[in-house]
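Field log, afternoon session.

UNIT: design team B
ACTIVITY: writing a sequence onto a fixed backbone
BACKBONE:
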Protein backbone atom coordinates (compact mmCIF):
# COMPACT_ATOMS: atom_id res chain seq x y z
CA UNK A 1 0.00 0.00 0.00
CA UNK A 2 2.82 2.39 0.97
CA UNK A 3 4.67 1.51 -2.25
CA UNK A 4 1.57 2.25 -4.37
CA UNK A 5 1.13 5.56 -2.58
CA UNK A 6 4.74 6.50 -3.30
CA UNK A 7 4.28 5.53 -6.95
CA UNK A 8 1.16 7.70 -7.25
CA UNK A 9 2.96 10.58 -5.56
CA UNK A 10 5.94 10.21 -7.90
CA UNK A 11 3.67 10.05 -10.95
CA UNK A 12 1.72 13.13 -9.84
CA UNK A 13 4.97 14.97 -9.17
CA UNK A 14 6.35 14.11 -12.60
CA UNK A 15 3.14 15.22 -14.30
CA UNK A 16 3.02 18.45 -12.32
CA UNK A 17 6.70 19.05 -13.03
CA UNK A 18 6.15 18.41 -16.73
CA UNK A 19 3.24 20.85 -16.85
CA UNK A 20 5.30 23.44 -14.95
CA UNK A 21 8.28 23.04 -17.30
CA UNK A 22 6.05 23.33 -20.38
CA UNK A 23 4.32 26.39 -18.93
CA UNK A 24 7.62 28.12 -18.15
CA UNK A 25 9.01 27.18 -21.57
CA UNK A 26 5.86 28.52 -23.21
CA UNK A 27 6.05 31.82 -21.36
CA UNK A 28 9.77 32.38 -21.92
CA UNK A 29 10.20 31.06 -25.46
CA UNK A 30 10.16 33.63 -28.31
CA UNK A 31 6.95 33.70 -30.32
CA UNK A 32 7.22 33.46 -34.12
CA UNK A 33 4.98 35.38 -36.50
CA UNK A 34 5.42 32.93 -39.39
CA UNK A 35 5.83 29.17 -39.59
CA UNK A 36 8.16 28.16 -42.41
CA UNK A 37 7.26 24.48 -42.04
CA UNK A 38 3.55 25.23 -42.48
CA UNK A 39 4.11 28.20 -44.81
CA UNK A 40 1.57 30.36 -42.98
CA UNK A 41 1.29 33.18 -40.47
CA UNK A 42 0.64 32.08 -36.90
CA UNK A 43 -2.18 33.37 -34.71
CA UNK A 44 -1.55 36.61 -32.84
CA UNK A 45 -2.39 37.14 -29.18
CA UNK A 46 -5.97 38.47 -29.17
CA UNK A 47 -6.88 41.90 -27.87
CA UNK A 48 -9.18 41.85 -24.87
CA UNK A 49 -12.54 43.17 -26.03
CA UNK A 50 -15.57 42.60 -23.82
CA UNK A 51 -17.89 41.96 -26.76
CA UNK A 52 -15.53 39.24 -28.03
CA UNK A 53 -15.48 37.68 -24.55
CA UNK A 54 -19.27 37.55 -24.42
CA UNK A 55 -19.55 36.06 -27.92
CA UNK A 56 -16.86 33.45 -27.29
CA UNK A 57 -14.63 34.77 -30.07
CA UNK A 58 -11.92 35.83 -27.60
CA UNK A 59 -11.54 32.29 -26.23
CA UNK A 60 -11.44 30.85 -29.76
CA UNK A 61 -8.67 33.25 -30.74
CA UNK A 62 -6.81 32.58 -27.48
CA UNK A 63 -7.06 28.84 -28.09
CA UNK A 64 -5.64 29.30 -31.62
CA UNK A 65 -2.77 31.37 -30.24
CA UNK A 66 -1.96 28.76 -27.58
CA UNK A 67 -2.08 25.99 -30.18
CA UNK A 68 0.14 27.85 -32.67
CA UNK A 69 2.82 28.65 -30.07
CA UNK A 70 2.83 25.43 -28.06
CA UNK A 71 6.40 24.34 -27.11
CA UNK A 72 7.95 21.76 -29.46
CA UNK A 73 4.90 22.13 -31.70
CA UNK A 74 6.72 21.07 -34.86
CA UNK A 75 8.05 17.97 -33.13
CA UNK A 76 4.61 16.87 -31.93
CA UNK A 77 2.96 17.64 -35.28
CA UNK A 78 5.62 15.63 -37.10
CA UNK A 79 5.24 12.78 -34.62
CA UNK A 80 1.48 12.77 -35.16
CA UNK A 81 1.87 12.64 -38.96
CA UNK A 82 4.51 9.88 -38.78
CA UNK A 83 2.27 7.83 -36.48
CA UNK A 84 -0.75 8.20 -38.76
CA UNK A 85 1.28 7.17 -41.81
CA UNK A 86 2.80 4.21 -39.94
CA UNK A 87 -0.73 3.08 -39.05
CA UNK A 88 -1.64 3.09 -42.75
CA UNK A 89 -3.58 6.33 -43.01
CA UNK A 90 -3.67 7.46 -46.65
CA UNK A 91 -5.20 10.93 -46.34
CA UNK A 92 -4.06 13.73 -44.02
CA UNK A 93 -5.44 17.29 -44.19
CA UNK A 94 -6.91 16.71 -47.66
CA UNK A 95 -3.65 15.30 -48.97
CA UNK A 96 -3.23 11.74 -50.23
CA UNK A 97 -0.16 9.76 -49.19
CA UNK A 98 0.35 8.41 -52.69
CA UNK A 99 2.72 5.92 -54.27
CA UNK A 100 6.35 6.63 -55.16
CA UNK A 101 6.68 9.28 -52.41
CA UNK A 102 4.10 11.63 -53.96
CA UNK A 103 1.91 13.84 -51.78
CA UNK A 104 -1.14 14.68 -53.91
CA UNK A 105 -3.88 17.10 -52.92
CA UNK A 106 -7.49 16.00 -52.94
CA UNK A 107 -9.34 17.53 -55.89
CA UNK A 108 -12.79 18.88 -55.07
CA UNK A 109 -15.58 19.68 -57.51
CA UNK A 110 -15.27 23.43 -58.24
CA UNK A 111 -18.12 25.73 -57.30
CA UNK A 112 -17.38 28.68 -59.60
CA UNK A 113 -17.00 27.06 -63.02
CA UNK A 114 -19.68 29.13 -64.74
CA UNK A 115 -18.45 32.40 -63.25
CA UNK A 116 -14.88 31.67 -64.30
CA UNK A 117 -15.92 30.72 -67.83
CA UNK A 118 -18.04 33.89 -68.07
CA UNK A 119 -15.11 36.04 -66.93
CA UNK A 120 -12.82 34.51 -69.54
CA UNK A 121 -15.52 35.03 -72.17
CA UNK A 122 -15.93 38.72 -71.28
CA UNK A 123 -12.17 39.19 -71.54
CA UNK A 124 -12.14 37.49 -74.95
CA UNK A 125 -15.01 39.68 -76.18
CA UNK A 126 -12.95 42.80 -75.40
CA UNK A 127 -9.98 41.51 -77.39
CA UNK A 128 -9.59 42.46 -81.05
CA UNK A 129 -9.17 38.97 -82.48
CA UNK A 130 -8.20 40.38 -85.88
CA UNK A 131 -5.00 41.76 -84.32
CA UNK A 132 -4.33 39.61 -81.26
CA UNK A 133 -4.17 35.81 -81.10
CA UNK A 134 -5.59 34.82 -77.69
CA UNK A 135 -5.27 31.32 -76.20
CA UNK A 136 -6.30 29.65 -72.93
CA UNK A 137 -4.32 26.86 -71.24
CA UNK A 138 -5.79 25.11 -68.20
CA UNK A 139 -3.30 22.73 -66.61
CA UNK A 140 -4.58 19.49 -65.02
CA UNK A 141 -3.02 18.71 -61.65
CA UNK A 142 -1.28 15.64 -60.28
CA UNK A 143 -4.60 14.32 -58.97
CA UNK A 144 -5.62 13.69 -62.60
CA UNK A 145 -2.37 13.04 -64.46
CA UNK A 146 -0.95 10.81 -61.68
CA UNK A 147 -4.26 9.19 -60.75
CA UNK A 148 -2.61 5.75 -60.94
CA UNK A 149 -0.53 6.70 -57.88
CA UNK A 150 -3.50 7.61 -55.67
CA UNK A 151 -4.49 5.27 -52.81
CA UNK A 152 -6.93 2.48 -53.62
CA UNK A 153 -10.57 3.60 -53.56
CA UNK A 154 -9.70 7.29 -53.65
CA UNK A 155 -12.70 9.05 -55.23
CA UNK A 156 -12.15 10.11 -58.83
CA UNK A 157 -13.47 13.56 -59.75
CA UNK A 158 -12.77 14.34 -63.38
CA UNK A 159 -10.98 17.63 -63.88
CA UNK A 160 -11.41 17.21 -67.61
CA UNK A 161 -15.19 17.75 -67.48
CA UNK A 162 -14.69 21.12 -65.78
CA UNK A 163 -11.78 21.96 -68.08
CA UNK A 164 -13.89 21.26 -71.19
CA UNK A 165 -16.82 23.28 -69.83
CA UNK A 166 -14.62 26.33 -69.30
CA UNK A 167 -12.99 25.99 -72.71
CA UNK A 168 -16.38 25.72 -74.43
CA UNK A 169 -18.15 28.51 -72.53
CA UNK A 170 -15.24 30.94 -72.64
CA UNK A 171 -14.96 30.72 -76.40
CA UNK A 172 -11.19 31.17 -76.20
CA UNK A 173 -9.20 28.78 -78.42
CA UNK A 174 -7.78 26.11 -76.11
CA UNK A 175 -4.31 24.71 -75.65
CA UNK A 176 -4.73 21.27 -74.13
CA UNK A 177 -1.46 20.13 -72.54
CA UNK A 178 -2.90 17.03 -70.82
CA UNK A 179 -1.69 14.59 -73.49
CA UNK A 180 1.87 15.92 -73.26
CA UNK A 181 1.81 15.67 -69.46
CA UNK A 182 0.38 12.15 -69.47
CA UNK A 183 2.99 10.90 -71.93
CA UNK A 184 5.89 12.59 -70.11
CA UNK A 185 4.76 11.22 -66.73
CA UNK A 186 5.72 7.73 -67.89
CA UNK A 187 9.40 8.67 -68.10
CA UNK A 188 9.99 11.76 -65.95
CA UNK A 189 8.86 13.75 -62.93
CA UNK A 190 6.32 16.34 -64.04
CA UNK A 191 5.00 17.34 -60.60
CA UNK A 192 6.92 17.90 -57.39
CA UNK A 193 6.61 15.24 -54.69
CA UNK A 194 5.85 17.82 -51.99
CA UNK A 195 4.33 20.76 -53.87
CA UNK A 196 1.27 21.44 -56.02
CA UNK A 197 3.24 22.99 -58.90
CA UNK A 198 4.51 21.19 -61.95
CA UNK A 199 8.28 20.77 -62.19
CA UNK A 200 10.28 22.58 -64.85
CA UNK A 201 10.09 19.36 -66.88
CA UNK A 202 6.32 19.51 -66.51
CA UNK A 203 6.33 23.18 -67.51
CA UNK A 204 8.34 22.19 -70.58
CA UNK A 205 5.50 19.86 -71.59
CA UNK A 206 3.10 22.78 -71.41
CA UNK A 207 5.53 24.76 -73.53
CA UNK A 208 5.62 21.98 -76.14
CA UNK A 209 1.81 22.00 -76.30
CA UNK A 210 1.90 25.78 -76.74
CA UNK A 211 4.44 25.57 -79.56
CA UNK A 212 2.45 22.88 -81.35
CA UNK A 213 -0.72 24.96 -81.25
CA UNK A 214 1.02 28.18 -82.27
CA UNK A 215 3.18 26.67 -85.01
CA UNK A 216 6.44 27.47 -83.22
CA UNK A 217 9.60 25.36 -83.30
CA UNK A 218 10.36 24.55 -79.65
CA UNK A 219 13.83 24.93 -78.21
CA UNK A 220 15.09 21.50 -77.14
CA UNK A 221 16.18 20.94 -73.57
CA UNK A 222 19.57 19.84 -74.94
CA UNK A 223 20.11 23.34 -76.32
CA UNK A 224 19.48 24.92 -72.93
CA UNK A 225 21.70 25.04 -69.87
CA UNK A 226 20.27 22.99 -66.99
CA UNK A 227 21.18 23.68 -63.36
CA UNK A 228 19.85 21.91 -60.27
CA UNK A 229 19.84 24.78 -57.80
CA UNK A 230 18.55 22.90 -54.73
CA UNK A 231 17.67 19.41 -53.57
CA UNK A 232 16.05 20.61 -50.34
CA UNK A 233 12.69 21.90 -51.54
CA UNK A 234 9.70 21.19 -49.28
CA UNK A 235 6.58 22.61 -50.89
CA UNK A 236 3.08 23.65 -49.90
CA UNK A 237 1.69 20.09 -49.66
CA UNK A 238 4.51 19.06 -47.37
CA UNK A 239 3.42 21.92 -45.12
CA UNK A 240 -0.11 20.51 -44.93
CA UNK A 241 0.92 16.97 -44.03
CA UNK A 242 3.67 17.88 -41.55
CA UNK A 243 5.58 14.69 -42.34
CA UNK A 244 8.97 16.22 -41.65
CA UNK A 245 10.74 12.96 -42.52
CA UNK A 246 9.45 13.03 -46.10
CA UNK A 247 12.17 13.32 -48.72
CA UNK A 248 12.73 16.71 -50.32
CA UNK A 249 12.38 17.75 -53.95
CA UNK A 250 15.03 19.16 -56.22
CA UNK A 251 14.50 22.19 -58.47
CA UNK A 252 16.15 22.43 -61.87
CA UNK A 253 16.21 25.65 -63.87
CA UNK A 254 16.94 26.19 -67.56
CA UNK A 255 18.54 29.12 -69.33
CA UNK A 256 18.88 29.60 -73.06
CA UNK A 257 22.39 30.78 -74.08
CA UNK A 258 20.90 32.27 -77.24
CA UNK A 259 18.70 34.72 -75.31
CA UNK A 260 19.71 38.21 -74.22
CA UNK A 261 17.18 39.24 -71.57
CA UNK A 262 16.24 42.37 -69.70
CA UNK A 263 13.72 41.72 -66.93
CA UNK A 264 11.95 44.75 -65.47
CA UNK A 265 9.90 44.27 -62.29
CA UNK A 266 7.83 47.42 -62.72
CA UNK A 267 6.38 47.53 -59.19
CA UNK A 268 9.77 47.48 -57.46
CA UNK A 269 11.69 49.11 -60.34
CA UNK A 270 14.25 46.32 -60.20
CA UNK A 271 15.96 45.47 -63.50
CA UNK A 272 17.98 42.29 -64.04
CA UNK A 273 19.11 39.96 -66.80
CA UNK A 274 17.77 36.79 -65.18
CA UNK A 275 14.35 35.17 -64.84
CA UNK A 276 15.42 33.65 -61.51
CA UNK A 277 16.14 35.02 -58.05
CA UNK A 278 18.38 32.42 -56.43
CA UNK A 279 18.19 34.18 -53.06
CA UNK A 280 15.05 32.12 -52.49
CA UNK A 281 17.12 28.94 -52.37
CA UNK A 282 17.89 29.76 -48.75
CA UNK A 283 14.20 30.20 -47.86
CA UNK A 284 11.29 27.82 -47.34
CA UNK A 285 9.38 29.14 -50.35
CA UNK A 286 11.96 28.05 -52.89
CA UNK A 287 9.51 27.95 -55.83
CA UNK A 288 9.47 31.76 -55.64
CA UNK A 289 12.89 31.79 -57.30
CA UNK A 290 10.94 31.64 -60.59
CA UNK A 291 10.27 35.26 -61.68
CA UNK A 292 11.29 36.55 -58.25
CA UNK A 293 8.00 35.61 -56.52
CA UNK A 294 4.98 37.94 -56.87
CA UNK A 295 4.90 41.07 -59.02
CA UNK A 296 2.02 43.01 -60.52
CA UNK A 297 3.65 43.42 -63.93
CA UNK A 298 6.94 42.11 -65.31
CA UNK A 299 8.30 43.31 -68.66
CA UNK A 300 10.70 40.86 -70.28
CA UNK A 301 12.66 41.98 -73.34
CA UNK A 302 14.69 39.56 -75.44
CA UNK A 303 17.02 41.37 -77.84
CA UNK A 304 17.82 38.12 -79.64
CA UNK A 305 14.28 36.77 -79.91
CA UNK A 306 13.37 34.85 -83.03
CA UNK A 307 10.56 37.34 -83.82
CA UNK A 308 9.30 40.85 -83.06
CA UNK A 309 6.05 39.51 -81.63
CA UNK A 310 4.86 40.57 -78.17
CA UNK A 311 3.03 38.38 -75.68
CA UNK A 312 0.73 39.28 -72.79
CA UNK A 313 0.76 36.48 -70.23
CA UNK A 314 -2.08 36.46 -67.67
CA UNK A 315 -1.48 33.70 -65.22
CA UNK A 316 -1.07 32.02 -61.87
CA UNK A 317 2.23 30.77 -60.47
CA UNK A 318 2.28 27.71 -62.75
CA UNK A 319 3.31 29.97 -65.63
CA UNK A 320 6.38 31.28 -63.78
CA UNK A 321 8.43 28.18 -64.59
CA UNK A 322 7.26 28.13 -68.23
CA UNK A 323 8.34 31.69 -69.05
CA UNK A 324 12.05 30.78 -69.54
CA UNK A 325 11.02 28.57 -72.45
CA UNK A 326 8.60 31.09 -73.98
CA UNK A 327 11.08 33.95 -73.83
CA UNK A 328 12.99 32.78 -76.91
CA UNK A 329 10.01 33.36 -79.20
CA UNK A 330 9.02 36.91 -78.24
CA UNK A 331 10.68 40.29 -78.38
CA UNK A 332 8.63 41.28 -75.34
CA UNK A 333 6.57 39.41 -72.77
CA UNK A 334 4.31 41.27 -70.34
CA UNK A 335 3.57 39.06 -67.32
CA UNK A 336 0.52 40.02 -65.25
CA UNK A 337 -0.52 38.92 -61.79
CA UNK A 338 -4.08 40.24 -61.79
CA UNK A 339 -4.51 39.71 -58.05
CA UNK A 340 -2.44 42.88 -57.66
CA UNK A 341 -2.57 44.63 -61.05
CA UNK A 342 -5.53 46.99 -60.74
CA UNK A 343 -5.81 48.53 -64.21
CA UNK A 344 -6.92 45.47 -66.18
CA UNK A 345 -4.87 43.69 -68.87
CA UNK A 346 -7.66 44.40 -71.39
CA UNK A 347 -6.98 48.11 -71.19
CA UNK A 348 -3.24 47.47 -71.36
CA UNK A 349 -3.68 45.47 -74.59
CA UNK A 350 -5.79 48.25 -76.10
CA UNK A 351 -3.11 50.79 -75.22
CA UNK A 352 -0.30 48.65 -76.66
CA UNK A 353 -1.08 47.92 -80.33
CA UNK A 354 2.28 46.12 -80.65
CA UNK A 355 0.89 43.19 -78.62
CA UNK A 356 0.31 40.25 -80.97
CA UNK A 357 -0.41 37.34 -78.64
CA UNK A 358 -2.20 36.66 -75.36
CA UNK A 359 -1.95 33.55 -73.22
CA UNK A 360 -4.10 32.91 -70.16
CA UNK A 361 -2.58 30.08 -68.11
CA UNK A 362 -4.08 28.68 -64.90
CA UNK A 363 -3.92 25.35 -63.07
CA UNK A 364 -7.04 23.40 -62.19
CA UNK A 365 -6.13 22.99 -58.52
CA UNK A 366 -6.42 26.67 -57.53
CA UNK A 367 -8.52 27.97 -60.43
CA UNK A 368 -11.76 27.85 -58.45
CA UNK A 369 -10.48 30.18 -55.72
CA UNK A 370 -8.10 32.41 -57.72
CA UNK A 371 -9.20 35.96 -56.96
CA UNK A 372 -7.05 37.33 -59.77
CA UNK A 373 -9.37 35.97 -62.47
CA UNK A 374 -11.91 38.65 -61.65
CA UNK A 375 -9.33 41.29 -62.55
CA UNK A 376 -8.38 40.14 -66.03
CA UNK A 377 -10.53 42.74 -67.74
Amino acid sequence: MIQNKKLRTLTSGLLAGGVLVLSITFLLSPKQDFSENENRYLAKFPSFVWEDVKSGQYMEELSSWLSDHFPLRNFFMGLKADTEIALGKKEINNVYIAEDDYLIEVYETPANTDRIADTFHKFYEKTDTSKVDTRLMLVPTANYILANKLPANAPVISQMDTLKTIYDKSGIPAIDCSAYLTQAAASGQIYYYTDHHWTTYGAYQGYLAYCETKGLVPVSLEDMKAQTVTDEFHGTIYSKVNDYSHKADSITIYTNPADSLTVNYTDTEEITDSLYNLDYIGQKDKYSLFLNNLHTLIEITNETAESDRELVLIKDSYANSMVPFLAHHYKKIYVFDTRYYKHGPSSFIEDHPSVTDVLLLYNMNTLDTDSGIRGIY
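LOG NOTE: Residues 33-70 form one domain.
NEXT ACTIVITY: expression trials, pending approval
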